[in-house]
């Protein structure tokens, strides 16, 4: 039986420190904060699209996106200026496809000539070596802490606890659940780095709060969020942050409407696709390891 303290800790994630949020390796290398946010958003988009094309579970994709975000935090983290670094072949092929210029504008399923993104045997082995080298860099940077508690399952459990999501859900309860998950997915792209500055319990509660208000579902009149150990001030901040995400993403899309967000700075290879690809690989490995250990 798992001790109560360990149960509580299992719902927590490693959060960014004030130093990591105030100074990044990219900023020390002269990358502006606006460009840094844009490149991070582009990398997260690619990671999410790769997960969809590889038909991976939401847990794996969310974990990969959080690991990608963590890697570029702080003065000791990765830099967008200098960092180069399913089966590995499938992952490499998907990222080769997603980094094609025309594809990156839409991130839709393949329509390009497969030969333009399929990796030959020699190219694949080179890409795999880069993948392994980048994996070492990421693990060292994150101090081998690759555990990520995904708030999506917590949110659904909380909805059931609040009586909003019964065992036989209605159209209204389904709408609340879907909108809650939508908010949690949107927050992954937040320029405020919500997934590395807030615990998953708070993220789940904020998403439920907004979703229930939008759909028109009344929650208990008491301060129900305190049941899940979330303070009113934290909830208020997250509600504002969640609401601002959509506007920021629209502004980013408009900013890069006529061109793709650069994956290079000063014509140097950032290695961003490699980092995104490796984060997804680490997430798959972590999930499979957890599954085996639980059997």
Characterization of the model:
A two-stranded antiparallel ribbon has the order 1-2. It has helices at residues 4-9, 18-22, 25-28, 33-53, 58-71, 88-98, 101-104, 121-141, 151-161, 171-187, 194-197, 200-215, 232-255, 272-294; strands at residues 264-265, 268-269. The protein is mostly helical and 295 residues long. Mean pLDDT is 80; it is low at 1-8 and 291-295. The two termini are 15 Å apart.
Give the arrangement of secondary structure elements.
Blueprint: H1 4-9, H2 18-22, H3 25-28, H4 33-53, H5 58-71, H6 88-98, H7 101-104, H8 121-141, H9 151-161, H10 171-187, H11 194-197, H12 200-215, H13 232-255, E1 264-265, E2 268-269, H14 272-294
Antiparallel strand pairs: 1-2
Helix pairs in contact: 4-5, 4-6, 4-14, 5-14, 6-14, 8-14, 9-10, 9-12, 10-12, 10-13, 12-13
């Amino acid at each position: 039986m798992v001790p109560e303290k360990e149960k509580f800790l299992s719902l927590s994630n490693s959060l960014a420190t004030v130093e990591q949020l105030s100074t990044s390796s990219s900023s020390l290398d002269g990358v502006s904060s606006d460009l840094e946010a844009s490149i991070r958003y582009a990398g997260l988009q690619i990671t999410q699209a790769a997960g969809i094309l590889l038909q991976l579970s939401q847990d794996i994709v969310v974990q990969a996106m959080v690991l990608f975000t963590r890697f570029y935090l702080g003065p000791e983290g990765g830099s967008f200026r200098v960092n180069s670094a399913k089966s590995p072949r499938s992952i490499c092929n998907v990222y080769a496809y997603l980094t094609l210029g025309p594809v990156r504008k839409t991130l839709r399923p393949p329509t390009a000539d497969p030969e333009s993104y399929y990796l030959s045997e020699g190219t694949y082995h080179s890409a795999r070596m880069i993948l392994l080298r980048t994996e070492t860099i990421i693990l060292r940077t994150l101090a081998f802490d690759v555990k990520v508690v995904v708030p999506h399952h917590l949110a659904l459990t909380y909805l059931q606890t609040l009586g909003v999501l019964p065992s036989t859900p209605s159209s209204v309860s389904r709408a609340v659940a879907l909108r809650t998950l939508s908010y949690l997915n949107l927050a992954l792209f937040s320029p405020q780095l919500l997934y590395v500055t807030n615990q998953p319990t708070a993220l789940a509660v904020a998403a439920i709060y907004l979703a229930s208000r939008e759909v028109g579902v009344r929650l208990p009149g008491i301060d129900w969020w305190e049941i899940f150990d979330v303070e009113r001030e934290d909830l208020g901040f997250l509600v504002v942050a969640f609401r601002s995400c959509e506007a920021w993403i629209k502004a980013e899309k408009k900013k890069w409407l006529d061109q793709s967000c650069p994956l290079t700075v000063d014509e140097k290879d950032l290695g961003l696709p490699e980092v995104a690809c490796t984060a997804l690989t680490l997430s798959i490995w972590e999930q499979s390891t957890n599954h085996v250990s639980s059997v």
